[in-house]
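Protein folding task:
====================
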Amino acid sequence: MPRRLVSLAVPLVLVALIAVACGAASTSTPASGSSTLDPSTFALEVGTVDLYVGDPQRVQFGVYSSSSEGGIQLVTFGQIGLRLTGPSAESAQATARYIAAPGTAATGASPVLSDPGVARGVYQLDGVSFDAPGIWSADVTVELTGGTLQLSTQFQVNEHPTYPAPGDRAPATDTLTMDPDAPAQAIDSRAQDGDPVPDPELHAISIAQALKRDEPVLVVFATPVYCVSQFCGPVTDAVQQLADEHPDLATYIHVEIWRNHEKSVVNAGAAEWLLRQTDLFEPWLYLIGADGRIVDRWMPLFDPDEVLAELESLPTG
């Protein structure tokens, strides 16, 4: 039986259905007071997977509306207030900032409903340290035109990370390069129907080869064509832009997820990093230091300015 791949993020309604099918403990309970909003059409979902106890982490949330009249609309821009509550019922209040998918609209002082073709992204809570494993809950308050929206969801926090995490030694993986014997679509899913690989510079060397250089490495795991979230193409393009503008800061690599999408065959390089359980989630961005250890990771979105700042702070060898 082939492994399943799950692309997190927008349209988040699809993720909610996938999460239920995979047995994830996630529910959304909307409520509102006097308003013109229909709270039954809204939901809150946690977009970040592999949350664990201890290290400060980013947690990304998506808020969306799905109705027969309006279709899927996303809450975008501005900030939202969040309350996280752990298994012990102790809670903490914080503010999450909006992270736009690279290449989409990012401006806006206050949260608004947007069509995914205009703006799509997530709200990110920075520096979250979970003190206990188990089922946590998130409660959000969003001020929108038409009223105040209150939403809740639950998510899992593990004792230890499942995927490679900051502090771990990066797996020295022989990822695909521009080898003419490799199927073009396995190198980048956009290379279909005879089209060339659009980002050959990101496939010049493998992760294993890059680690031997004793310099920072920035690796994006994403499948631009088949990614349900519509985040994979933009994040891959953003890494390409970083490579073009700051070539001396790191070795930049794109790892395509699928070797054969129709037959559900995952590339060996992607599997070694990400296929640690029944499902493989993506996209991921990993920053590896010159010492070969993982410095940071982002999922499913990242702020290119934040990534650049971390790159510039790293020693080059």
